[in-house]
Amino acid sequence: MKSKRPNGTGRRELTLDEYYAGVRNGEVATLARALTLIESKNAHHRRTAEELLARLLPHTGNALRVGITGAPGVGKSTFIEALGLLLTTSGRRVAVLAVDPSSGISGGSILGDKTRMTLLSAESGAYIRPSPSAGTLGGVASRTRESLLVCEAAGYDVVLVETVGVGQSETMVADMTDCFLALMQSGAGDELQGIKRGLLELVDVIAVNKADGEGRLEAERAAHQYAIALKSISQRSTSVVLPDVLTCSALEHEGIEEVWKAVEQRVQRQRDDGTLTKNRGQQNLRWLWGLVELQMKQAIREHAKVREIRDALEHDVVEGVLPPETAARKILEVLGLSNEH
């Protein structure tokens, strides 16, 4: 008798062979269940997910991976839908991994990207997966990377990864994609400061959205400001390849094709000079050690000897009677990992 899922839905668990065959055949229902398996924290599910990824890995790597970021209100979902429709109309298969901010109570997605991309959701060549970040950047990094690979194995040749548009998540998404696109809007004064603080190091293409109607001239002016600022910043280094700066209107579906061509040209240059394979290899190495650090941290917190002293150490650190460095050393000592002799 097949075992039931522990969540009480009554659905039986799929075998590893069923997951593999369903994903490779592009079965959307099986793909959805495979991604749920990937996101599970259940130890049994994690082992099955690792085995599934190992089997799917030879069928990955053929998609164009694009990260998309932008501040709330810039029109990311509208842009992604317009881009997705452009790509599916031309015969491409598009997967959208939308990393949502999470509810602090339930950990669930609160933006509901799938409900905001109704036209793209109806396309047979598109798949949208809102993924709650659950407040853990490490979780986003590992699970989104794994989900990206599963989508590639399912035959999607473009994977769009949307960030929450804030903080370190941008760096993490840029480090799992081939091209990183920043969606901007006019009123560029504050955003220019953002470029100076590090966006230049991440972004490959800047698209100033909402270039329509009365906002067209303002968007073009903002794009010009971005271009000038980027040139000024890059003067210190001759090795910097400047991001492409364009305007578009996701609402009117104008300029979307030009933005996509800029993305494709960026990635094609990487293919031509061999940096695409090199970059992906380096991304995998950083992913490896990121996972090691994440899993080591979890293992240390749950270690029996650490649990015995953890509450007392944390209390003393909170009360200010024990320096965090001393507490950290005591934890490493009970694990036999202290560098002191």
**First and last CA, distance:** 57 Å
* Low-pLDDT segments, ≥5 res: 1-8, 102-112
Kindly report the spatial arrangement of strands forming the biggest sheet: 3-2-4-1-5-6-7
Categorize the overall geometry.
globular
Total strands: the figure is 7
SS-derived structural category: alpha/beta
Strand percentage: 5-15%
CATH superfamily of the largest domain: P-loop containing nucleotide triphosphate hydrolases
Taking all Cα atoms into account, the compactness measure Rg is: 22 Å
So what's the CATH class of the largest domain? Alpha Beta
CATH topology of the largest domain: Rossmann fold
- What count of domains describes the coordinates? 2
Query: Which architecture of the largest domain does the CATH hierarchy give at level 2?
Result: 3-Layer(aba) Sandwich
Number of helices: 14
The biggest beta sheet reads: 7 strands, parallel
What is the mean pLDDT?
Answer: 84
